[in-house]
């Protein structure tokens, strides 16, 4: 088997498994999985920047929220339907990540983390400040009637599940292809040794900016889809907590692997779900498990698999 | 024809005048050695040629074009390849991918051409059988040789090498001399080197730097006979 067919088999296999799970999982779990797939899109967007380009952002909630509010405001205040609303979400995230990226990339390392964190905080405060449009903390519900795409009602569990799967699949396959392409390999080179990449003639700044924009736009697609499929947009999604989540998902699942974000999102979702069934202090249990994982599988679950079992894992 | 020249190229670090008004001309196709005692300013000089180190003042001209204002990546794209004095490879990637990254910037999406270039570059330096190894697992000497292969894969017009034989075994140094001589004529080479046998057996001309200025310029025979050079450099380096 060539590397390309093995990659394709892995990625199509994961998608087939996810499609099949709909038919066997109880409603509660398939509902969770729909949510997880949308959040995994966010994690994959984050992974492109963190796992493949080596840039640690603490402000991705800004892009997630830009997509979410881009769609929600266009639909709610502008009366747009779902398809142009989704496009508005993508464009909002693209513009916001372009501006934030151009400014934040003037810094590196810890300064980059802090600048992105500040941008996201400014974004959160903006949502609160323009409460007349965004409904501030309270947020708003997108009416069920508006949540349909090309005549398909996105509020039924089955349609919602498969809409989430289609978005997930498109981003999953697109990124799997991208990280094997010359562009993706250049991002990896920048992660590994930026000075050397520059001295091979690559305009590393331009590559990093494109990575921020692509990462931010994918994160925005996730935010827009979340609002569309689950019918709610709120300022919580712009808080620092939502900047930390994708970092945790990616660290747990395996930074710089194509399946890591999905694995991390599933793992953490169920970790919190199970822990909260046991105790009110569920974040404590989650925290302990996270610490243990970082100690014993610092490359994340997929990263550890790659090191121990399948070195070919993309 | 002159491929590269500098006029009044100057670099001042906080207190140190590392390069002082250097005028330098490198003819197309020549193998030139740049020698001088430790701290003479050799790495600073080539760093300013490649754009890795910002200049304080002065100009660099490449192929008739003033490139002083170009960022490093744009100069490399014009056909200048550069190997670092302190080994700098992609330690986490395979040997093949290291060289492919060097080739791909020029050859782009043509995967077959990139693979052929990688195979050719690796076999020229004798690393063909290590293509699948992770670069960081190679010995120090092999990592240096890998950097040379990364330079070759770019098909540079000017190849700048900063102390490439440092840390190589005797047999590897002999191979290196053969390789450099085989490139001469087609590729212009600027070689910083402390190993005098490499300098004397490969260079067609030598420039001696000392305390940030050009002390002497000439053929190997002229440089060897120059009393000022002997006093400033050869005497101390041989000791
Ligand atoms: N980043 C820097 N900041 C301050 N001083 C520097 C810096 N880099 C080099 N220098 C100083 O500039 C002078 C020239 O250094 P350079 O590295 O160019 O010398 P070199 O000829 O390459 O020496 P070597 O043979 O040891 O490699 C030295 O005195 C060095 O200490
Ligand atoms: Mg030096």
Description of the molecule:
The complex is a heterodimer of chains A (314) and B (239). By secondary structure, chain A is mostly helical. Helices cover 75% and strands 3% of the residues of chain A. In chain A, the strands form 2 sheets. Chain A has a two-stranded antiparallel sheet with strand order 1-4. A two-stranded antiparallel sheet of chain A has the order 2-3. In chain A, helix 2 packs across helix 11, helix 2 crosses helix 12 and helix 3 packs parallel to helix 5. In chain A, 47% of the residues are buried. Chain B folds into 2 domains: 157 residues, P-loop containing nucleotide triphosphate hydrolases (Rossmann fold, 3-Layer(aba) Sandwich), CATH 3.40.50.300; 65 residues, no CATH class. Chain B is built from 9 helices and 10 strands. In chain B, the strands form 2 sheets. In chain B, strands 6-7-8-3-9-10 form a 6-stranded mixed beta sheet, with helices on both faces. Chain B has a 4-stranded antiparallel beta sheet with strand order 2-1-4-5, covered by helices on one side. In chain B, strand 4 and strand 5 form a beta hairpin. In chain B, helix 3 packs across helix 4 and helix 3 runs parallel beside helix 5. Chains A and B meet through helix 8 and helix 9 of A and helix 2 and helix 3 of B. The site of adenosine-5'-triphosphate has 13 residues of chain B, from helix 1.
Please provide a brief summary of the model.
With about 325 residues, chain A is an all-alpha fold. In chain A, about 75% of the residues lie in helices and about 5% in strands. In chain A, a hairpin with a 2-residue loop joins β2 and β3.
List keywords for this structure.
heterodimer; A: 314 residues; mainly alpha; two-stranded antiparallel ribbon; two-stranded antiparallel sheet; 14 helices; 4 strands; 75% helix; B: 239 residues; alpha/beta; Rossmann fold; six-stranded mixed beta sheet; four-stranded antiparallel beta sheet; 9 helices; binds adenosine-5'-triphosphate; binds magnesium ion
């Amino acid at each position: 088997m060539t590397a390309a067919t093995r990659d394709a088999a892995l990625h199509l296999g994961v998608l087939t498994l996810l499609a099949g799970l709909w038919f066997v999982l109880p409603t509660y779990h398939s509902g969770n999985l729909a949510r997880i797939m949308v959040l995994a899109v966010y994690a994959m967007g984050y992974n492109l920047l963190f796992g493949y380009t080596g840039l640690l952002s603490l402000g991705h909630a800004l892009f997630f929220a830009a997509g979410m509010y881009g769609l929600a405001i266009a639909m709610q205040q502008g009366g747009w339907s779902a398809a142009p609303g989704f496009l508005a979400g993508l464009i909002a995230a693209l513009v916001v990540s372009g501006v934030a990226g151009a400014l934040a990339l003037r810094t590196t390392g810890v300064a980059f983390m802090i600048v992105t964190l500040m941008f996201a905080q400014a974004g959160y405060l903006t949502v609160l400040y323009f409460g007349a449009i965004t409904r501030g903390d309270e947020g708003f519900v997108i009416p069920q009637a508006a949540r349909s795409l090309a005549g398909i009602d996105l509020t039924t569990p089955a349609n919602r599940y498969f809409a989430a799967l289609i978005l997930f699949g498109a981003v999953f396959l697109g990124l799997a292809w991208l990280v094997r392409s010359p562009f993706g390999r250049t991002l990896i080179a920048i992660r590994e040794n930026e000075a050397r990449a520059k001295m091979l003639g690559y305009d590393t700044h331009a590559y990093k900016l494109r990575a921020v924009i692509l990462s931010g736009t994918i994160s925005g697609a996730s935010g827009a889809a979340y609002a569309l499929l689950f019918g709610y947009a709120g300022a919580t999604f712009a808080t620092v907590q939502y900047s930390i989540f994708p970092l945790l998902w990616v660290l747990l699942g395996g930074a710089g692997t194509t399946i890591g974000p999905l694995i991390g999102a599933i793992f953490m979702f169920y970790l919190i779900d199970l822990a909260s069934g046991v105790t009110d202090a569920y974040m404590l249990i989650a925290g302990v498990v996270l610490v243990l994982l970082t100690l014993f599988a610092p490359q994340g679950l997929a990263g550890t698999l790659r090191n121990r079992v399948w070195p070919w894992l993309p | 024809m002159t491929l590269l020249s500098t006029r009044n190229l100057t670099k001042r670090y906080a207190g140190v005048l590392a390069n002082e008004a250097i005028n330098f001309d490198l003819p197309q196709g020549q193998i030139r050695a740049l020698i001088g005692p430790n701290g003479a300013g050799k790495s600073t000089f080539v760093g300013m040629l490649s754009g890795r180190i910002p200049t304080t003042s002065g100009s660099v001209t490449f192929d008739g074009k003033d490139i002083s204002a170009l960022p490093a990546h744009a100069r490399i794209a014009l056909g200048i390849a550069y190997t670092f004095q302190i080994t700098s490879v992609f330690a986490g990637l395979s040997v093949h991918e290291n060289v492919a990254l060097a080739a791909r910037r020029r050859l782009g999406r043509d995967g077959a051409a990139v693979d052929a270039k990688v195979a050719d570059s690796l076999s020229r330096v004798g690393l063909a059988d290590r293509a699948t190894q992770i670069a960081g697992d190679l010995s120090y000497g092999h990592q240096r040789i890998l950097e040379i292969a990364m330079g070759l894969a770019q098909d540079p017009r000017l190849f700048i090498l900063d102390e490439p034989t440092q840390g190589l075994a005797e047999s590897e140094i002999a191979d290196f001399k053969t390789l450099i001589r085989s490139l001469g004529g087609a590729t212009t080479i600027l070689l910083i080197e402390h190993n005098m046998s490499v300098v004397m057996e490969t260079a067609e001309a030598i420039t001696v730097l000392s305390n940030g200025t050009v002390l002497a310029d000439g053929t190997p025979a002229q440089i060897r006979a120059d009393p000022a050079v002997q006093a400033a450099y050869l005497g101390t380096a041989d000791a």
